């Protein structure tokens, strides 16, 4: 098992699924369901933003499948986490760089642990930057 990101052609998920009509429809459904006054808070930094400025991180790939070349996107709402692109990248870096999270934990546990670490560290980073 590996939670590390795959590169290039080895990653059909990023090359195909994230560009598929199924994913775009699922993403739109998630934001329609969770948006309050046009905004959703980033799960890492807490800053509210619009769907146009947020990405959804998969805690689990249950519900994602491909059948006869057609992608299906039936993820549970709880398996998708809204993040700013920068926060999303930081979350993946934490997972990629930690051997335990990258190779010895389920994706759900690795994502949850990395998100908790990111939530505790981001306020310090924001203070240092200002």
Summarize the structure.
With 130 residues, the protein is an alpha+beta fold.
Helices and strands, in order, run as HHEEEEEEHHH
Q: Give the assembly state of these chains.
A: single chain
What is the molecular shape?
globular
Largest sheet data: 2 strands, antiparallel
Mean pLDDT figure: 87
Structural class: alpha+beta
What's the number of helices? Answer: 5
Poorly predicted segments: none
Helix coverage percent of residues?
40-55%
**Intertermini distance:** 40 Å
In order across it, which strands form the biggest sheet? 1-2
Structural notes for this entry:
The N and C termini lie far apart (40 Å). The protein has 130 residues and is an alpha+beta fold. It is 45% helix and 15% strand. It has helices spanning 12-15, 21-34, 85-97, 99-103, 107-129, and strands at 40-41, 48-49, 55-58, 64-67, 70-73, 80-83. A two-stranded antiparallel ribbon has the order 1-2. The chain has a two-stranded antiparallel sheet with strand order 3-6. Strands 4-5 form a two-stranded antiparallel sheet. α3 crosses α5 (107-129).
């Amino acid at each position: 098992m590996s939670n590390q990101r795959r590169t290039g052609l080895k990653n059909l998920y990023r090359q195909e699924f994230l560009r598929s009509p199924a994913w775009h429809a699922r993403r739109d459904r998630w934001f329609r369901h969770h948006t309050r006054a046009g905004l959703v808070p980033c799960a890492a930094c807490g800053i509210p933003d619009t769907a146009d400025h947020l990405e959804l991180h998969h805690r689990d790939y249950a519900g994602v499948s491909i059948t006869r070349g057609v992608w299906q996107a039936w993820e549970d709402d709880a398996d998708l986490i809204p993040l700013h692109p920068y926060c999303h990248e930081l979350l993946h870096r934490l997972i990629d760089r930690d051997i335990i999270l990258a190779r010895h934990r389920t994706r759900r546990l690795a994502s949850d642990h990395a998100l908790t670490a990111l939530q505790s560290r981001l306020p310090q980073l924001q203070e240092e930057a200002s």
